């Protein structure tokens, strides 16, 4: 059997509060009731990091992602304190990528300069659309002008390495509208753009009261138009829903998609750790509800071992999102399994034109990227027991069970929520 090797390590920190819950959002987030009490939460995060530190002793954290919710509701000094705790209890790389998710309508003017001083090196801005009507339909609290102003302030603060989240196939949206959103986004000169289709997720308000969305063929045409325009503008399509200028790919999300490890801190945060000496891969989940998380003892999280039969699906769920695919050597090093264990599904998918070989391994074809769910189903165990870790991994990356459903979900840091 190949040796199981510890992959790169990241840190995800979850902030569960928003000004208002968006009707399409299925992340672990809650509308803020009253004034935000950041002090108890930051103190709990520090204890959380201390409790998890022993499991990753000697390993370096290469990236940090502050996700939510709306982390930008927390002041810069709170973010600085969490980063100080991370440096105190973990080995944080000197050049670590530190991303902060921000809502254009929930950032005080001038705050980005302070976040940068606190240690943030990258910002992910939830623009979603530049159409006032579309933003209203999505329940967003910001205006297009607030997004433009936030981008201007990011450049002025020395945070030009920022991402814009954009959605398409929105209620009432036409092809020209989707392309116009991309053009408006590019005018702000982001380093990175996440472009993903609005989907109706179970448990959301939109699932209970579905809006009228563009037909699947219209959505596919929107994606083709926008992808072509982004490519012509110099943004490389490196992941199902991510485009970046050269050298500006999100290092944190690349670690997710490469089946890397990550600590999860905060209410409902997920983690994944490779215990190489014990030949085990475990997934962790924090108490989901903020009050429970605050009341729980540090280190009180759920741990589930990923069964060997589940590892091919777990690996492919992530790695096949990358347009460059994966190396067979990496599959073996990060799962401890022989490459022969996936030879049969790879052969079937190759015959269907959904997978194609590369110099080192395989990648999804253009057709395979469009119908990635069908590709992933080939790697599911023959009789899946759907353990906690297995079910979690499906939900965390937004992969539905329905065959022949295109997979274009993927706001930044969707895993770990």
Sequence-ordered SSE layout with sheet pairings:
Blueprint: E1 9-15, E2 17-18, E3 30-31, H1 38-52, E4 60-68, H2 76-89, E5 91-102, H3 111-118, E6 122-128, H4 132-137, H5 144-156, E7 162-168, H6 175-186, E8 192-197, H7 205-208, H8 216-232, E9 236-239, E10 242-244, H9 251-257, E11 261-265, E12 270-275, E13 280-285, H10 290-295, E14 302-305, H11 311-319, E15 326-327, H12 328-335, H13 343-351, E16 355-357, E17 361-364, H14 366-370, H15 372-377, H16 388-396
Parallel strand pairs: 1-4, 1-11, 2-3, 4-5, 5-6, 6-7, 7-8
Antiparallel strand pairs: 8-10, 9-10, 12-13, 13-14, 15-17, 16-17
Summarize the structure.
The chain has helices at 38-52, 76-89, 111-118, 132-137, 144-156, 175-186, 205-208, 216-232, 251-257, 290-295, 311-319, 328-335, 343-351, 366-370, 372-377, 388-396, and strands at 9-15, 17-18, 30-31, 60-68, 91-102, 122-128, 162-168, 192-197, 236-239, 242-244, 261-265, 270-275, 280-285, 302-305, 326-327, 355-357, 361-364. The protein is of the alpha/beta class. The protein has a domain at 9-255: Aldolase class I (TIM Barrel, Alpha-Beta Barrel), CATH 3.20.20.
């Amino acid at each position: 059997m190949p040796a199981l090797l510890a992959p790169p390590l990241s840190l995800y920190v979850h902030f569960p509060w928003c000004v208002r819950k968006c009707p399409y959002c299925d992340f672990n987030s809650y509308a803020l009731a009253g004034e935000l009490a950041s002090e108890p939460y930051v103190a709990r995060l520090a204890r959380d990091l201390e409790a998890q530190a022993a499991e990753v002793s000697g390993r370096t954290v290469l990236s940090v992602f502050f996700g939510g919710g709306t982390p930008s509701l927390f002041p810069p000094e709170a973010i600085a304190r969490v980063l100080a705790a991370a440096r105190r209890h973990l080995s944080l790389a000197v050049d670590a990528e530190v991303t902060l998710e921000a809502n254009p309508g929930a950032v005080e003017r001038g705050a980005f300069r302070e976040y940068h001083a606190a240690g943030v090196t990258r910002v992910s801005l939830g623009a979603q659309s530049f159409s006032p009507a579309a933003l209203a339909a999505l329940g967003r609290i910001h205006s297009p002008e607030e997004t433009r102003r936030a981008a201007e302030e990011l450049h002025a603060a020395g945070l030009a390495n920022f991402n814009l989240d954009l959605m398409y196939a929105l209620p009432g949206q036409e092809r020209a509208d989707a392309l116009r959103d991309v053009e408006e986004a590019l005018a702000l000169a982001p380093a990175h753009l996440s472009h993903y289709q609005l989907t109706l997720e179970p448990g959301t308000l939109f699932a209970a009261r579905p809006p009228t969305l563009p037909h699947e063929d219209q959505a596919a045409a929107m994606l083709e138009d926008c992808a072509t325009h982004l490519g012509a503008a110099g943004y490389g399509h490196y992941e199902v829903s991510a485009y970046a200028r050269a050298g500006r790919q999100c290092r944190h999300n690349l670690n997710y998609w490469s089946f890397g490890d990550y600590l999860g801190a905060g209410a409902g945060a997920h983690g994944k750790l490779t215990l190489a000496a014990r030949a085990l891969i475990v997934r962790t989940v924090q108490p989901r509800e903020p009050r429970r998380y605050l009341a729980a003892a540090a280190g009180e999280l759920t741990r589930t071992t990923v069964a060997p039969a589940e590892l091919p699906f777990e690996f492919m769920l992530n790695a096949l999102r990358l347009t460059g695919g994966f190396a067979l050597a990496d599959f073996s090093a990060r799962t401890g399994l022989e490459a022969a264990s996936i030879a049969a599904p790879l052969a079937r998918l190759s015959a269907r034109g959904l997978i194609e070989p590369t110099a080192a391994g395989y990648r999804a074809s253009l057709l395979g990227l469009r119908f990635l769910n069908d590709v992933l189903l080939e790697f599911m165990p023959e009789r899946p027991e759907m353990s906690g870790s297995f079910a979690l991994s499906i939900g965390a990356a937004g992969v539905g069970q329905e065959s022949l459903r295109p997979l274009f979900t993927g706001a930044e840091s969707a895993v770990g929520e």
